[in-house]
């Protein structure tokens, strides 16, 4: 549920609008390609977790195979990934809350969200997990109903010619060519980011040698279902050219079906979606920073835990960056979500490539691993070619700073 919660956030409910607008109906191919790559990544993650049961985070899975430098870089870029995701999701949460509280400033709502989620994460991990379970459940139920209602409408109200017209009648299935598919991959990869969260729960999961492989196998199927099927419903019911504005495509479809109060209902669902992603992000950043402290790469004070064994100092430090990120996000204007997804889109692909390299070293050169790694590298290059130069420079600059910092932290240790 944590992997589903971290993945099914604003990326599907809000980011799908951007990906459909960029690629048109061919966005289905981007989600399918991304899902197949992640299938290999998750199988590799599960296999490594079985071989190295002492690992407690993704860093602990990569480091024994690729070395301390790779583990260090993976840990910090993953921390950076989730810090920015939390900022983007908190910004989105405040806008959803303003639907009901229009007179309250966005920054006040953002502060309330950040404070509430911080307090929740300071409680025992059992309470955190239970909360995440129910937040994720709301999203899953909503997507399930969306798929069912959409299928009913397609089967009863739409003729084959109308569906065909929506899919190919507005510039074709590839309205922006292969370049549109490549450009949409950044949004798609950002949306799928979070599925690897299974690797962050190793240290606090009962019987991880049994639980993690089973979760890795099952979650990828559910992710594909909860992304591919809803997107298929959207592009079959609505011309892709009408998607891409401020309104969520899910609201557009539910309104077309005739569900009353759809605006308020979907606003609530999207709020729970982003709260779930923030919740997951706080868990990921605090555990990763705690692991870096245990390995001696950051001051010992980040090893401090409270009476519930929650790494409180690491959590609060990550939360400080969350507040800063939210403030910057609001100054950025209406393109906050797109602006903030650039760096996480890059960093999560880097983590997946490191996991695939680890799987290669762990189990040998299997065709699926090689093919998935080659596809991911090709997508990475295509994203560089189609993304804004400024976002790419900032992303690689952050990674370079992290890599260089290893030399200084290693010298001190």
UniProtKB/TrEMBL annotation:
Q: Which residues form a coiled coil?
A: none
Query: Which superkingdom?
Result: Bacteria
Extract one GO BP annotation from the record: transmembrane transport
Primary subcellular site in the record, as a coarse category: membrane
The yes or no answer to whether the keyword Transport is present is yes
Q: Which Pfam families match?
A: AA_permease
Intracellular or extracellular location(s): Membrane
Q: How does it sit in the membrane?
A: Multi-pass membrane protein
Annotated GO CC locations: membrane
Q: Which UniProt keywords apply?
A: Amino-acid transport, Membrane, Transmembrane, Transmembrane helix, Transport
Q: Which residues cross the membrane?
A: 28-49, 61-79, 99-122, 134-158, 178-198, 219-241, 261-284, 310-334, 340-357, 369-386, 392-409
**Where does the Amino acid permease/ SLC12A domain lie?**
1-391
Keyword Transmembrane helix tagged: yes
PANTHER family per record: GABA PERMEASE (PTHR43495), GAMMA-AMINOBUTYRIC ACID PERMEASE (PTHR43495:SF5)
What name appears for this protein in its UniProt entry?
A: Amino acid permease
Question: What organism does this protein naturally occur in?
Answer: Alicyclobacillus acidoterrestris (strain ATCC 49025 / DSM 3922 / CIP 106132 / NCIMB 13137 / GD3B)
